[in-house]
Design brief:
Layout: E1 3-7, E2 10-13, E3 18-25, E4 33-40, E5 44-51, E6 57-59, E7 68-73, E8 78-83, E9 92-99, E10 113-114, E11 118-123
Amino acid sequence: QVQLVESGGGSVQSGGSLTLSCVASGFALEKYAIGWFRFTPEKEREDVACISRSGDTFDYADNERGRFTISRDNAKNTVYLQMNNLQPEDTAKYFCAADGTDGCGRDIGFYEYRGQGTQVTVSS
């Protein structure tokens, strides 16, 4: 069964940190680019970051402020999103998705698989 499962969300205060994990099962994650997206009722869906098969990374939501770091451990079939200096506007449900074309596209439509998400809540 193909599955992506996110974990690591929670509630933190402004300035805090969280590391999200995305674990794949039923397929070899190393063959896919993995993107992180987030959803809020206000902004709807927003792309956060992506990592290609070869490890190239793309930071979309953080505007290159260096707060978010995406990484992968293919041996563990896992992709991580390290988030530092979290702010209330980062509050969202975060989910990961897998793209077999390795395009790291910004449109969720390019991704074949997605998880159910993990909630991140940042209080001021």
